[in-house]
C-alpha cells in the first residue's frame, strides 16, 4: 500500500511515483487528498491496482467509483474517524475495500481509536465478503480488537518500524488476523 497525503491543493505531481510502483506487484493507493478525481488517470497509468479515496473529499462518490473502475483499478473507500459508517454504507456494495481510519489522517505514531471498532463490526455483519481495512495506531496491543471486529486488512506503521524485530511484529499481526478469519468461517 502506498499512502499519498497532501495538505494543499495544487497541480504538483507525485514525483517519481511511476518508478516506485514498478517495484511492487500489487499497489493500493490510499489517497488522503482533496479532489481525488484528479489523480485517477495518473495513478492508473503509473500501474496502481487499487485506488482508495476519502468519502469526505468528494461530492460525487458514485461517479468517482465509476471512473476508477473504468480506469481498470479496484475501488477502496475510506472514512475518517468523524464520518459515520452509515454514510459509507450506500456505497459498500459497489466497492472492493472499506477503510476505517483509526486515527486522524496526518501522521504516524498516533493513538489507536478503539471506539472506531463498532464501524468495523457493523460493516463485517452487513458485508461478509467485503475487504475491510483499519489504519492508524495498529500494533500488537490493538490488533486483537481489529481482527475480532472483522478487519481483514491492516496498516501498521510505527509498531513495525520502531520494533527491534519488525519481522516478528508483522508475523504476529498477520497470525491474529488469519486466526480471526478462520474462526469466523467456522462459526458460519
Ligand atoms: O496514514 C496514516 C495517518 O495519516 C496512517 O497510515 C499512519 O501513518 C499509520 O501509521 P501508524 O499509526 O501505524 O504509526
TrEMBL record:
Homodimer. GO terms for biological process: carbohydrate metabolic process; pentose-phosphate shunt. Keywords: Carbohydrate metabolism, Cobalt, Iron, Isomerase, Manganese, Metal-binding, Zinc. It catalyses: D-ribulose 5-phosphate = D-xylulose 5-phosphate. It comes from Labeo rohita (Indian major carp). Its cofactor is Fe(2+); Zn(2+); Co(2+); Mn(2+). Gene3D superfamilies: Aldolase class I. This is ribulose-phosphate 3-epimerase.
Amino acid at each position: 500500500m502506498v499512502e499519498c497525503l497532501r495538505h494543499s491543493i495544487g497541480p504538483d505531481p507525485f514525483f517519481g511515483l511511476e518508478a516506485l510502483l514498478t517495484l511492487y506487484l500489487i499497489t493500493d493507493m490510499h489517497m488522503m487528498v482533496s479532489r481525488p478525481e484528479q489523480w485517477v488517470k495518473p495513478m492508473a497509468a503509473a500501474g496502481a491496482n487499487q485506488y482508495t479515496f476519502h468519502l469526505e473529499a468528494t461530492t460525487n462518490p458514485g461517479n468517482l467509483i465509476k471512473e476508477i473502475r473504468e480506469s481498470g483499478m479496484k475501488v477502496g473507500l475510506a472514512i475518517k474517524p468523524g464520518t459515520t459508517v452509515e454514510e459509507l454504507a450506500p456505497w459498500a456494495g459497489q466497492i472492493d475495500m472499506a477503510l476505517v481510519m483509526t486515527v486522524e489522517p496526518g501522521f504516524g505514531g498516533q493513538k489507536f481509536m478503539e471506539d472506531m471498532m463498532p464501524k468495523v463490526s457493523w460493516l463485517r455483519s452487513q458485508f461478509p465478503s467485503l475487504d475491510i481495512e483499519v489504519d492508524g495506531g495498529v500494533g500488537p496491543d490493538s490488533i486483537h480488537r481489529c481482527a475480532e471486529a472483522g478487519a481483514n486488512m491492516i496498516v501498521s506503521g510505527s509498531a513495525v518500524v520502531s520494533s527491534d524485530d519488525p519481522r516478528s511484529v508483522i508475523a504476529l499481526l498477520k497470525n491474529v488476523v488469519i486466526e480471526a478469519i478462520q474462526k469466523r468461517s467456522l462459526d458460519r
